[in-house]
Each structure stands twice: as structure tokens, then as C-alpha cells.
Amino acid sequence: MRIVIAEDDPLLREGVALLLRPESLDVAATAGTAEEALAAIDAHRPDVAIFDVRMPPTHTDEGIRAAVEARRRRPDLAVLVLSAYVEQSFATELLTGGVAGLGYLLKERVGRVEEFLTALHRVADGGTAIDPEVVAQLFTRSRQDTRLDRLTPRERDVLALMAEGLGNGAIAERLVVTDGAVHKHIRSIFAKLDLAPTDQVDRRVAAVLHYLEASPRRL
Fold first, then answer.
1. Average pLDDT over residues 32-54
2. Which residue, of 34, 36, 73, 133, has the fewest CB within 10 Å?
3. How crowded is residue 102: how many other Cβ atoms within 10 Å of its Cβ?
4. Separation CA 137–CA 154 (nearest Å)
5. Quick check: helix, strand or coil at residue 59?
């Protein structure tokens, strides 16, 4: 797996690189600015790009905008975004382009090496990895949407785990229920969110995006 790391903090940037290299992962390049990151991605054609949300010069949204641009240039590029805080508007902006091969983690998760590596591999394999803390905080801010109020507590649990990127089997294991029970809950979620079957829309993706977008924007 070839990786480019975009992080303006040199200690964290090199720390992540040192964490990945012993795992037989190829850190092709590191970058301290969004522009350097995009140039490195063009030059090295990595499998995964790890982006900090806030980068120079303004330290606002340069990193997330570079991640969106990198995905525009290379739709097959997996992107894992790291943020010091839950910034819902940035998460939604990135995810609305499609959730395959995307991750959004809090930086503190990097210190939990096994969890971080699991998320990295999941994203590289085309999955989605949303930090549980991000999901939890978004849920507390999602009360404006009346359709979400239709969900039972168990259905909310299932949707939250869907938003983390877990499949049905992993959700069943986490909640200690059967796969059949999870399937039933998901069908109910689709119905309560008014997500009818269609060839153009993946209802699972639509449910997760609806859940994220229902939260008030936080800049």
C-alpha cells in the first residue's frame, strides 16, 4: 500500500510515517501544505492519502478542500482525514462525493495504533471509517430532523454503526444480535427515512448521508 501524508505539524507528520513504515506500508511522500500534498499525489499515485483538515496558510479548511480536489482528480484514491475536533460540515462536504474509500478520524485515534491501522486498511479496501466520537457527537446534534425521531433507540444504534462504516456482520457482533435482526432494523430505517429502492441511489449510503447532513453545520 502506497501512502502520502499531508500534515502541517512536523512531529505528527513524521510520527505517522514512523508508525506506518514498520507495518510494511510504503510512505511515498509527506507534505506540510495542501499544495505539496496534491503535487505528491500526482507524482506518486498513492493508494491512500492521509489529510489533516486544517493546513497552511489560513489553517481553516485547506486540507479538506485538497482532499476533495484529490478525489476529483482521482476518484479511485482512498482518503483518510484526521481532525483535532469534530467538524461536521467538513465531514459532510467530503462524504457527499461518495463514501467508498473514505475515513474521518479524530487525531487522538492515531495513538490507538491497532484501531488506526484497522481504519486505514478498511479505507484502502474501499470501505468507510468514521470515528465513533464523530458519530456520537453528530447524533446529539441531529434533533432537527423529524424523520430521525421516528427511529427506535436500537435503530439509532444500528444507523450510528452504519455511519462508522461497519457492515451487517460487524454491527450484529457489536450489538450482540443476529444478522437477521440487523437486516430487519436496516429495512425499518430505510422505510422511516423514506428511502425507497432505486437503481440510482444506494439506500445505505443515502441513510448515512442523511444522518450526517441532518446535523447543524459547525465551522
1. 94
2. 73
3. 24
4. 17
5. coil
From CA 102, how far away is CA 123, in angstroms rounded?
5
Domain CATH for 95: 3.40.50.2300
Give the residue-averaged pLDDT of 133-157: 70
In angstroms, how far is the first alpha carbon of the chain from the final one? 33
Catalogue the E-assigned strands of the chain.
2-6, 26-31, 48-52, 78-83, 102-106, 128-130
Question: CA-CA distance, 131 to 66, in Å (whole number)?
Answer: 20
The whole-model pTM stands at 0.65
- Residues ≥6 apart with Cβ < 8 Å to 10: 32
- Give the 3-state secondary structure of residue 176: coil
Domain CATH number, residue 142: 1.10.10.10
99: how many CB neighbours lie within 10 A of its CB? 21
With a CB cutoff of 8 Å and minimum separation 6, the contacts of 207 are 159, 162, 189, 190, 193, 195
Domain encompassing residue 63: 2-130
3-state secondary structure of 16: helix
Q: 179-190 pLDDT, tens per residue?
A: 999 999 999 998
Q: How many residues does the chain have?
A: 219
